[in-house]
């Protein structure tokens, strides 16, 4: 384990040193000293900072606001409030309104109505003393059949 760590130690020390400097730097000489560790004089910035027409260096939104949410580039306060509003209306309100809408949808396929109607007919037939089901769906006395001569 120690041999693996010693193999990557120069790389780790360069990363630690460059993060301590506060900018992205890279060593131009692979083995600048006998120990293999880079020193501040060996490190150079990866890319020069771009400047606008007034000579001011352009700063990344992530450096200005490390908690950048992607809603406003310049103002972290507006960025945070826009994120909060977007998540509130996009998530909370959508779940509440959507859940309420789904709950109050009409009876699909009239399943609840057919159950209530069947229970009502069963109670009515039991009260009249009739069987719950008969062999004929329709009352045969009410069916009018054509005469044999009308065919």
TrEMBL record:
- Annotated region described as Disordered, given as residue ranges: 28-63
Q: Does the keyword Ligase apply?
A: no
Q: Give TM segment ranges.
A: 85-106
GO CC terms: mitochondrial inner membrane
What Pfam family is a match for this entry? Answer: ESSS
Its subcellular locations are: Mitochondrion inner membrane
Question: Is this entry keyworded tRNA processing?
Answer: no
InterPro entries, alphabetically?
A: NADH_UbQ_OxRdtase_ESSS_su
Which named protein is this? NADH dehydrogenase [ubiquinone] 1 beta subcomplex subunit 11, mitochondrial
The record lists the organism as Sinocyclocheilus anshuiensis
Supply the gene name.
LOC107665059
